[in-house]
Amino acid sequence: MELLIVTGMSGAGKSKAIDALEDIGFFCVDNIPLNLISKFAELYMKSNGVDRIAIVSDVRGQMIGDLVDILQELKNFKIPYKVLFLDASDNVLIRRYKETRRKHPLYASDGGSGSLEQAIQLERKMLLPVRAKANIVIDTSLLAPAQLRSRMVDLFLENRESGLLINCMSFGFKYGLPREADLVFDVRCLPNPFYVPELSSLTGLTTEVQEYVMGFEEARNLLHKLTDLIDFLLPLYHSEGKSQVVVAVGCTGGKHRSITFAEKIATHLGKNGNYAIATHRDIAKT
Known about the structure:
single chain; alpha/beta; Rossmann fold; five-stranded parallel sheet; four-stranded parallel sheet
């Protein structure tokens, strides 16, 4: 049985994630009481026909800190599980709540006293021990719903080889660092195709931009050194029990150099037998 516990900040996209998981074959249960999780998992281990279960757990009406004890219980019962934690920046969460006009669960539970900002900060503090236990953390601050769905498919689509997933993510520094990154590399030191008129409107997914970027000896040397370092680190991450490593490569706008390097690194890792994908956070930004 594959048991996935989906948790994280309210407003970070748990509902969207669950929708995507249902579409790829998970049996999903939203907000089951914490003290029933281990019993629920135990029952389904003995049943036939359902072998992929996703359970959503958040702060609504319960002490999310107890989830740490539940995870230990699952371990004691030898029930295999993974924890997916969805996060987003405070500013993005505030904006989403204002757009939907929904109440934050902690803000609503105390009769509306305090502020939305205080509710978010309290929730973040409550969730710290759970976040530390997560196998996979995804920051949805700059992800469109379609991008989050694509990430769910990449991570959990059945029939892909099990093991460590390496997400080679390109991004633009002017839009902020990816909060879920395990490794961050800066390629702004390389010549920028943006200043070449015929390349400016293209992206690092095109042959023209890739040939320009990799046409410089310093770019080729940098790629060699980065892949050598990543090759060294991946077994260490794997032995630590991580199921996903996010390798983030940034340039100014996230359209040319960073995309080129993310693609090249993912290709290199794939050739070495790793499960690697390339995602481009800011490719659609204007």
